[in-house]
Structures are given as C-alpha cells and as structure tokens.
User: Fold this.
Amino acid sequence: MAYDERLARFRQAHLNPFNKTPEQQERPDGGAPAPAARRPDPSPGDPEGTLDLGLAEDHFSRPVGLILASDVQQLRQAIEECKRAILALPEHSERQKDAVVRLIHLRLKLQELKDPGEDEPNIRVVLEHRFYKEKSKSVKQTCDKCSAIIWGLIQTWYTCTGCYYRCHSKCLPLVSKACVRAKVSHQAEYQLSICPESGLDSQDYRCAECRAPVSLRGVPSEARQCDYTGLYYCSSCHWNDLAVVPARAIHNWDFEPRKVSRCSMRYLALMVSRPVLKLREINPLLFNYVEELVEIRKLRQDILLMKPYFITCKEAMEARLLLQLQDRQHFVENDEMYSLQDLIDIGAGRLSCSLTEIHTLFAKHIKLDCERCQAKGFVCELCKEGDVLFPFDSHTSVCTDCSAVFHRDCYYDNSTTCPKCARLSLRKRSLFQDSGTEAEP
Assistant:
C-alpha cells in the first residue's frame, strides 16, 4: 500500500486548477479553502480509474492521424467556456491567471489544427514571386495576404526573396499580385507627379489592387489613399505604411514620410538605392536653391577625375580604394544620376560629410602617398611655375579639348589659345605635310 499512499500524495500536490471540486473553490469571505476529500483508489478493472495525474483535459498533445471537424468544434466550445470563466472569476486572482494561460494554449491548439505543420517544399514560385520557406520561429510577422499574424512556432510561412512579400503557406494559392521586383527590373522609373489623384469614381469605388468595395465613410471598407500613386486602397492593401515620396522630394525638397499602400511601399523600398533620377532634366532649378547639391556635384566631378589615376595605379588597385564607394557605384560612373537615398542623405546632411572624407582620402593617395600618381601631375605651361597641378584641385582649370591643367587665374587671363592644343595642332599639320611630300613622285 505504500505505492498507493505516494500516488495519493502526488495527486494532492499536482491537482489540475481547472478540475477543482466545489469543496476546493475559494470561499466568498476570503477564508481558506476546505480540504479536498481523498478519492478512493481505483480498482484494477475499473475503466474510469486510469491514472490521469491531473491531466484529464489534454488539449495540447499533437493529434494522431486525420483531424476531424469535431475536434475543432470541441476546441471552440472550450475556448468560449474559458472566456466566460475568465469574466466570472475575481480580477487578478490566481485562478483567473490560470484560466488566461489555458485560453492561450487552447487558441494555439486551434490554430495548429487549422494549419497543420505539414512538410512543405522549400521553394514555391507564384506570379514571379520566388517564395522560400522561413525557418525562424520567434520573429513576429504579419501575412501580407490575409493581414493576420503569422505564428512561427506552429505555422508554415514563406517570404519572397525579390520583394519580401510574406504570407502563410495556406495563403500562397490566394496571392494575386505579381512580384514588384519584376516591375523594377523591366521598368525602373518613378511616378514624378505629386499624388496624382483621379477620384474614387474612376476606380468604380473599388480597391485599386484587390478590387474590394471601398468608401470614404468606411462602409463596407475604409478607402485609404496612397500618396505615391494617388489611388485608393482597402485596409487590407493599405496598412498606413510611411515612405518618402520621390515626387515631393524632387519638386518640393520635402522628405517627410507619407502614407502609402503596401505595394507602393515595397516598390519604393526596392527602388530607393537605384540611380534613376537625372535632376538636371527633372528640376534644374533645384541646384539654385539647395547648396548641398552643388557641393555634392563638385565632389562627384572631382572623384571622376581621380578615377583614371586609381585604374592605372597598382597600389590603389591593391588597396581597393574605389570600394569606398561600393554602396554608390554610380558616383564613379557619372555625376548626373541620383538615387532617392542620395537625396535623403543630402537632405539629412549625411552624404556631404561622408563624401568629403572619401574625397580627402583619394586626394591624399594621389598627391602625397603614391609617387606614381604624383608623376602624372601637370605643370602650368602659361606661368611656368614649378608646383604640380592636378585636375581636381580647387584652384585649377582644365582644357576641354586636350585635358591640360592650368592655374585658374592663368587660364582665364590668357587671351591666346591653349599651348598644348596649339602644339598638337602644329604636329598634326607637320605630319600631314610629310605624308603629302612622300606621296609625290
């Protein structure tokens, strides 16, 4: 009988809080609960006498085999009963806390039955989306299709590697929007009109993406305007995400984030670092009012003049100096194209500081550290002074025809032509005369 006594003591210490008998409930007057009556020992042949150890109601074990609808129905009934029990119990009591914990587990179990963790393929391709199965279980995400929370612990979910569209595995067949990266690859350009609104009537009072009925009064769904496209979307396609609108940045130099739709937000996020804005053509007057743009343009022009030195310098290639601009490769290709991120950094004052540091590093290598680069300097042929000049110096001017470098004052004060251009022209004429003399019999 020693085993039976130990078993009875174990039951007494590990009672299920949801299976307490009326004698074990708390008294209304706040007194101690009455001691629980000892249950008779189960007989070996009694089917009701199985050892449950206080775990008679098990809603947490993984179901075996197929899951029937009755299992889901029973869980829903248990959830409703648990809700009523929570409202009836005293606030902040231990029993209410236990009931809340049980409610959480019941809901997780119900979600698991709705979306079982089956073996899913690692890659799925839907409408040019390339979905990869995520392995993270702790990060809280939201499904872009159904707007519900993705419970990574019990649900399978996918992320598009192109536009970062996230959804449940069960929502994959319902995806109706093509991958935004395909649009970026085929047509990388911005809408440069500020909020080009055309009205809900032009959309037939429907969402511009999913075509669900929308209204400004919120019935049946609230119409939310995207500041980038000017179109109206439903609350499932427009989550009030904030983004900098390119048209406002270029025309008004306004970088305040505006509310945009989910599709526009993903498109702007993919386009933010692409150099597709030619400011001189879109808004040439911007350089007259934003001094930082003039400074950035001068620094970029100097870097383009430094590039030939680095390409032909072995030490510069080994040090990979040009990789200092690996995040802005267009800075070493031209001085006209800008990305939206460039404009944002210029407006915040970050780009001017970082680009000045890189400019100083490049000039130091050419003028002080490297003898080969120093040997490629110029001497002013107009004043014949001995200081070495470089085309990126602030006090120099460069001949547009032969790329010779002169002091700025000497170049503009001299009324004659460029000495190097005159010398090259004379050489060409002499070569032409020599070839003509040899051709005569």
Summary: The CA atoms of residues 77 and 97 lie 20 Å apart. Confidence is low (pLDDT under 50) at residues 21-40, 42-70. The chain has 15 helices and 14 strands. The first helix runs from residue 2 to 13.
